[in-house]
Design a protein that fits this description.
Oligomer: single chain
Largest sheet: none
Number of helices: 4
Distance between the termini: 40 Å
Strand content: under 5%
Structural class: mainly alpha
Mean pLDDT: 83
Number of strands: 0
Helix content: 55-70%
Shape: elongated
């Protein structure tokens, strides 16, 4: 399999890709943490609005926040 070069993605994920202890699971968690945190900031900390924007239930967003230690 030959991956296509995408400079925008390389820039966004460079710190994740270059991490020596990088696993798919830890990388997914890091990206989820970034997306959830940015969404919560954008929605003023409102869980309901953030959950709608992320297309997930409020309960699942609470669980994700707890798992990813987002306060």
């Amino acid at each position: 399999y030959k991956a296509q070069k995408n400079e925008e993605e390389d820039c966004f994920f460079s710190d994740i890709i270059e991490d020596n202890e990088c696993s798919l699971a830890s990388s997914v968690e890091r990206v989820e943490r970034i997306i959830i945190t940015k969404t919560l900031q954008k929605e003023g900390g409102n869980i309901s609005k953030s959950a709608r924007r992320l297309n997930m239930s409020r309960a699942n967003l609470y669980k994700k926040c707890k798992k990813l230690q987002i306060k």
